[in-house]
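Marked as duplicate of an earlier ticket. Keeping the data here for the record.
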Amino acid sequence: MTQTITTSSKALVEAAEREIETLTIEDALKLHGRDDVVLVDIRDPRELSRDGKVPGAFHCPRGMLEFWIDPESVYHKPQFAQDKKFVFFCAGGLRSALAAQAAQRMGLKPVAHIRGGFGAWKKAGGPVEPGDAPKVKA
């Protein structure tokens, strides 16, 4: 018998966006480099290596987020104990909506996520550092 999925990933993201702040790429670019903001890149390490990264962004793989936020966790990261605004992003803005929702539900605040993610950031001309993946010549 096959599984019956009753809630789509699209519905989960839409529900998350009703609970959290969603930033336009223009607003997100204005926050880059501010001392009171932490940009949190939740992409997989392979994505950073392949596609590049936002200078100064803190990398937290999505699978570790809740553990890194929780001060009682052995995996806690002090970056999440700062009194700052946390702006999450992924490649396209779906995973980051769910991440921001989870962070907010845990008590981290204020939080937001970037609509369109890293793809929108690059398209808008935001600063990007190259990844470390070897370049393949054609």
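See parent ticket for discussion. Residues 24 and 73 are 32 Å apart (CA to CA).
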